Each structure stands twice: as C-alpha cells, then as structure tokens.
Amino acid sequence: NAGVTQTPKFRVLKTGQSMTLLCAQDMNHEYMYWYRQDPGMGLRLIHYSVGEGTTAKGEVPDGYNVSRLKKQNFLLGLESAAPSQTSVYFCASNRQGTGELFFGEGSRLTVL
Amino acid sequence: GQNIDQPTEMTATEGAIVQINCTYQTSGFNGLFWYQQHAGEAPTFLSYNVLDGLEEKGRFSSFLSRSKGYSYLLLKELQMKDSASYLCAVPRGGYSSASKIIFGSGTRLSIRP
User: Fold this and answer.
1) First-to-final CA distance of chain B
2) Residue A57 forms beta bridges with which residues?
3) Which one of A80, A110, B67, B91 has the largest count of C-beta atoms within 10 Å of its C-beta?
4) Which of B48, B92, B101, B109 to mutate to test the interface with A (most CBs of A within 10 A)?
C-alpha cells in the first residue's frame, strides 16, 4: 500500500526555470494539500484541494500553481523558480478536513 | 501561522514527563491535531481532539480546552527516540468547512540522558 507518493524526491533548479511536483495518493481521499517547510519552521500551506477539479489558496500561494485533474493526483507547479522557493515540499491527503493527514516523504527543492 | 502558538524549543530528561503547549484562535474551531516529526522525515499523526478533556494513548496524552483556546501534548516516560519536533494544527474554514489545515511553527524537543 503506497499511501502518498511524491516525485521527484530531490531537484536542483536554476532561477527562472519551471518544474512540476507530482503527488499521488491511492487511498481515495477527497482532500489534498501542498505544504512547504523551511529550516526550523513548521509547515506552511501553499494550496489545497477538496476534490477533483477544485483548488484553493493557502497561506503562501504566490509563485505556485496547482491542478487536480484526477482525484488521486495533485500537481504543484513553479512557473519561474526563485531562490526563495528553496524548501522541502510535503504533499498530504485526508478523507475530509478533520481527518488524519497522511503525508508523502517530501521533495527537497533547491533553486540556485 | 494564523495565531497558533507553541514554544520553539524544549529540553527534557530521559524517563521524565514533558508538556508541550499550544494556543490557537478559538473562532471557527473544528478540532486540533498533534503531529510528530523526526528530523528529515515527514510528520506522523499522534492525536486529534475535538471535545474538551484528556485523551490518553500509551505514553502520549493530549488535552483540549475549547473555551481557553488551549491544548497540550503530554509525553511520559521519555525515551531518546522522542527527540523530535511536535506540531499542533487546526482545520480552518476555507473552500469548504474545515478544509484548510494550518500548522503551528512546531516545538523542537530534545531529550538528554
């Protein structure tokens, strides 16, 4: 049982490059989330989705876009990467907003 | 994030008891989560409280007071492996009721022998 899978696990980008992080869950969860975590800090919500075809902004959405075309997948895009986006990105999902969150292993992104 | 406050760091001794506090904004309350996160790993679920009182789960207990906007995580019989960050989180109204799960900055707990 894979749970929540993130790809890639590591990526180095140059300023201005674009990339997409993929999150896939096999638990038939309705809700999916993208967080970023900077050294010594908690998780900050970037965007989230309450179902296929719906997305919404979190606490720090600027510079990111998301799409939820299929229920099991939630994509996070950086159109023009900046050094300030160097971070560890976590995807998570749950059955509903008050349910236990299941996290992926994280994706470490470095922007030079 | 969004008025969720926790101490930044705490230190405790192996075998002892430690209490990690979390305060939050009470409006639109839908429950409170506690997660554990070891360095370099993803957070893992510890507890979810929606009613007042203490819930015990082995060595870990979580307490909630909705009227005071206050929760704590109690760790007993501390072990070295309990050295980790402890995050409290609250689901806030967003696109739909209780859909934005917002985390505090976390408390880094260090256990000394």
Assistant:
1) 33
2) A47
3) B91
4) B101
